[in-house]
Amino acid sequence: MENINWSDLTFGYMKTDYNVRSYYGSGKWSDLEVSDSEHINLHIASTCLHYGQEAFEGLKAFRGKDGKIRIFRMCENALRMQSSSRGIMMAEFPVELFEKAVVEAVKRNERFIPPYESGASLYIRPLLIGTSAQVGVKPANEYLFVVFVTPVGPYFKEGFKTTPVGIYREYDRAAPHGTGTYKVGGNYAASLVAGEIAHANGYSAVLYLDAKEKKYLDECGPANFFGIKNNTYITPASSSILPSITNKSLIQLAEEIGMNVERRQIPLEELATFEEAGMCGTAAVISPIQRVDDVDTNHSYIFSTDGKPGPTCEKLYYKLRAIQYGDEPDKYGWVTVL
Ligand SMILES: Cc1ncc(COP(=O)(O)O)c(C=O)c1O
To answer: What is the pTM of this model?
Structure first.
């Protein structure tokens, strides 16, 4: 794809050649279909439009120095989409078919996979929606699964650096026993207002506290939270956060480099004791936190004064990226090489 300026790409949508679809009806999923249309034909009473029967995933494919294409942990995304489906009563998409659809979508759009040197990657977006007509609040009996891809730029254009995040107590993204552990559209709709306010005030994300007591750290708008102290990687245990696949991977790498790992409730005040803090997710791997501003109390927790990430964030970031791009051996079997 010679006329794409890979290094100018942002995290946005760009039309690619094909997407892959499967339809559910009468209790089963259809064979995969390849489409060159960016549009779908929807009934006006589809449950996805009225009652939020929608779940999605996000994962990436990378081109290595060897020219090979690597997809990162797609089985985990397939399983998480099944969990989301159970959470909002949608038909579960089979793991094997999910993997086949992802591979097909990546291969069919091979010309959009950025070259190794660019630091860009191919973002893969699977989507599952309820499509049958319903006006009562009930689950659909027909569903559509689609996977499309779009090239996205390197997250850190000017190098790996820290950003500030803000705490705003008057907003929650998910209830304690709500849908926070599922990747469903409603959670993101619920986070838009706080996200916009945070961005307008110079923060890269909102750091949410637990919705019930506002005592413990939950997660950031689009990423999990972790803190580092005393050679320990600490990340929140909570019933309202998304189980991040990046976080799960970083935990394993932290253990590999001899760190202790704790997954537990983190009281807000404990931020003062962390040597480093970061957000983690597919988009950035790690987005190290410069400082957390508790906007409601005017208190700041500072992790970096020069914009530079701490040594542990840096180590974990480069280690995970090296596995994704194939620069380091894939000893945990995380990567599917095409
Ligand atoms: C709310 C939320 N938390 C965490 C994450 C990070 O998850 P993952 O590492 O699987 O991308 C994401 C993004 O996918 C997210 O939307």
So the answer is: 0.97
C-alpha–C-alpha distance, residues 173 and 95, integer Å: 28
| CA-proximal residue: ligand 1, atom 16 (nearest) | 222
Q: Among the atoms of ligand 1, which is closest to the Cα of residue 76?
A: 10
SS3 300: strand
Residue nearest to atom 1 of ligand 1 (CA): 222
Catalytic one of 15, 157, 183, 248: 183
How far apart are alpha carbons 123 and 275 in whole angstroms?
Answer: 32
Strands 260-264 and 232-236: parallel
pLDDT per residue over 20-55, tens digit each?
A: 999 999 999 999 999 999 999 999 999 999 999 999
Residues 104 and 260: their CA atoms lie apart, in Å, by: 39
| Cβ within 8 Å of residue 297, ≥6 positions away | none
Q: Render pLDDT for 159-213 as a digit per residue (tens, 0 to 9).
A: 789 999 999 999 999 999 999 999 999 999 999 999 999 999 999 999 999 999 9
Is 183 catalytic? The answer is: yes
Residues flanking ligand 1, CB < 6 Å:
58, 219, 222-224, 242, 244-247, 281-282
